[in-house]
Amino acid sequence: MTEVEGPLAASTPSSETAIAPEPAQAPVADGGRRRSGRRWLIIGGIALVFVVIIGYVLGGAAAAGGPVARADSALHTAVSHNNDMVDSFSNDPFKGIDLTSDNPDIPAAKAAVATDKQKVVKWQAMVSSDRAALDRVRPDLRSSFLTLPEGGTLDRHRQRVDAALSALKTAQTGIDLYTKEFAFVDPFLDAMAGFEAIGKAGTANDIAGVKAQLPGTGANMQKAIDLAQPPAVPAELVPALKTIQHALSDIQALVAAVDASDAAAVQKAEAALEADAAALSKTDWTAGETATKALFQPLIDAYNRDMKIAAGN
Question: Residue 191 domain-assigned?
């Protein structure tokens, strides 16, 4: 083979002197550092998200903790009054009135009613106080963006507060009924005391004493009838009340007949009074008690049902 001379010969490598490719170490190291940097950046971002979430949850729990604690306190107080409220529904302002007796103890009946009035004042104070406390905490038991993690807890407490408020509304209905009963009972017992005094004066032939009792007794009886409005005062009692009022009119007629020395009129008035007594003897006074129990039993059931929820049961 002819040898090639010149510059080409010097620049042409032989098979024995082939040039090896340069190493690529530097680019590989740079790519690894970039990937490692991105990895730590992603991990740092995820950690930051977790920190934010944990802070959000803890912040929400802290934000909800105050309203929940206040709701628990208000609920505990309301539930602690449960026994007193249940007893209130068992109260019966008519229990001290026994008109079937020949000598009804009016002073004892009035004393019993006075005691019951004091109890109702106590119940009213508890209901008003508990309702005000629950009304204050209820608006704070609403979920917000901050308290979203505790939304379930807030909802449960709001349901319990609503149940307690419903129970207190029922209790207030009972108190309102008692208040109307007392408004009736007071003049009624005063009228009964007047009739008792009239009977004693009549037995002693004290016509002047009878006359002295008639105006006040009549006014009290009329007031009692005006206030005898169902359902607070059972409708079953109204006919008996009107019979008593009619008897009062017959007594007035008897007094007038005696004053006029009109024997026929006296006889007529006495017959009328006997008819009044016969009518009253047929009165079922227990019907009023039965009606009162029927009135309050649904209230008792509703109150107990709501208070059970309020107590968290």
Answer: yes
Domain limits for position 228: 41-310
Does residue 33 fall inside a structural domain?
A: no
Give the whole-angstrom CA distance, residue 105 versus residue 96: 9
Residues 83 and 166: their CA atoms lie apart, in Å, by: 17
In a domain, 15, yes or no: no
Compute the C-alpha angle 277/279/280, nearest 5°: 65
pTM of the model: 0.69
Q: Coil, strand or helix: which one is 272?
A: helix
* Residues 243/276, Cβ–Cβ less than 8 Å: yes
The number of domains in the chain is 1
Q: Does 23 map to a domain?
A: no
Count H helices, E strands: the chain? 9, 0
d(CA 56, CA 67) in angstroms, rounded, equals 17
DSSP H or E run through 310: helix 286-310
pLDDT in tens, 241-284: 999 999 999 999 999 999 999 999 999 999 999 999 888 888 88
What tokens were used for 52?
A: 């934010």
